[in-house]
Amino acid sequence: MTLNEMGQLAQQASDVLALIKSKDKNNVLVAISTALKENTSKIVAANRLDIEAAKNAGISNALLDRLLIDAPRLAAIIVDLHGIATLADPVGEEFDSKLLENGLKLCKRRVPIGVIGVIYEARPNVTIDIAALCLKTGNACILRGGKETINTNLILVDIIQQALIHCNLPKTCVQYIENTDRSLIAELLKMDQFVDMIIPRGNSGLQQFCKENSTIPVIIGGVGICHLYVHTTADLDKALAIIENAKVQRPSVCNALDTLLVDECIAATFLNKLAKHLIPLGVTLIADKKAKQYLQYPAIDAQLGDFDKEWLSLNLGVKVISGLNEALVHIKKHSTQHSDGILTNDLSIANQFIDHVNSAAVYVNASTRFTDGSQFGLGAEVAVSTQKLHARGPMGLQELTTYKWIGIGDHLIRN
Fold first, then answer.
1. Rounded CA separation 72/114 (Å)
2. Residues 209 and 117 placed together within one structural domain of the fold
3. Among 197, 190, 183, which residue's Cα sits nearest to residue 215?
4. What stretches in the chain show pLDDT beneath 70?
5. Could you read off the pLDDT of 98-114 as tens digits, one per residue?
6. CATH of the domain at 288
7. Residues 369, 338 contacting (CB under 8 angstroms)
8. How many domains does the chain have?
9. Within-domain flag for 389
10. What's the sign of the alpha-carbon dihedral 116, 120, 126, 127?
């Protein structure tokens, strides 16, 4: 099947999905979750093939972690699927209602976007998340995963399509580009006749390629250079727990901590306490000159460009700064506007940080790891948008809808 044919079928399927009732959408999600559970062993076996091939290809541990779907991770995905099924369906919601002086009743009504094209790498759980969120919001989707996840993705899509058929819906509601030839990405980006939005989930190179070559609106996101600033008033013991969580819990994801900024007033006390806490956990500190002066523990000298890296590993950039203003300047220069936070007990300082840091998610005394659709109560997300239009942060159900104006009159004509 050509991409053009896939686009036509996706558009036809989106017309069907746009009209089905919420309970029918939920039934599909339940059917998918049941099928995933019943096929756990097959999915895990397919994933093992991808993991083995990835190891042989020398893929990094960070990407291997993203690629992995074992039984516990699959069980968590299934729980999220049930969660999405219980969420309110935004489609059909009416808002901003008003009655004009001429008698025209106006409102906005949420409707599906149509056909969503998603390009992603090394994250087979994304296949399930996106399919579920698109189905819940009445959107068809065309998925293109990386070659390193081909075995896992093919079995996942087959399970999803069989569940769609079981629920009397076109299996073309969710389609997957099986050919891993990269030239097909460029072709997909030009299919504006059929595809309404492109979401690239991958490295900055993929994002830039999509921005430069797409004739379809592109949602940019998923690349996180995340910061925490430890202010002089921070509770240093509690700060350690937050930093550990942000860096160590799952270092290979986009909301993991990349750079820690430490106020020089507390650097002598805090940096060695930090190193003593993190180094036994496998963290490597990448420290600037100021930080190295205070550290009594091993650290690597920060090189030019290190503070512009999304580490996706247990590396942590550490920089000593002179106060809030320098922290704000550093974040503005190096942040990807994903997730940035401050650790402080000064409400005024916290508010200044919130006002000046223009990221999709800004935290006070909390880990950056919360930037996640499930954690935000959205069920899951199709991406974490770092742009300003049309959505920011984790994109859940509402962000996969647009709206139409509804005008109701009593045989009104315009004067």
1. 33
2. yes
3. 190
4. none
5. 999 999 999 999 999 99
6. 3.40.309.10
7. no
8. 2
9. no
10. positive
Q: Which of 140, 102, 145, 109 is nearest to 127 (CA)?
A: 145
The residues pairing with 144 across neighbouring beta strands, listed in sequence order, are: 119
Element (H, E) at 29: helix 22-38
- What CA–CA distances, in Å, run from 128 to 113, 125, 178, 185, 333? 19, 5, 16, 20, 35
Q: Which domain holds residue 148?
A: 3-219+395-408
User: Is 311 inside any structural domain?
Assistant: yes
- Integer Rg of the chain from CA: 23
Q: Which two tokens stand for residue 214?
A: 């797409």
Residue 306 domain flag: yes
C-alpha to C-alpha distance for 111 and 105, rounded to whole angstroms: 19
Residue spans of beta strands (DSSP E) within 145-194: 174-176
Percent of the chain scoring above 70 in pLDDT: 100
What's the pTM? 0.91
**pLDDT tens-digit readout, 121-158:** 888 999 999 999 999 999 999 999 999 999 999 999 99
Take residue 60 and report the two structure tokens written for it: 């990094």
The whole-chain average pLDDT of the chain stands at: 96
Q: Would you say residue 379 lies in a domain?
A: no
Cα–Cα dist 195/188, whole Å: 8
Q: Is there a single domain that holds both residue 136 and residue 265?
A: no
The per-residue pLDDT for range 311-330, each reduced to its tens digit, is 999 999 999 999 999 999 99
Same-domain pairing of 162 and 268: no
3 state SS of 83? helix
| Residue 24 Cα distances to 32, 129, 273, angstroms | 12, 18, 55
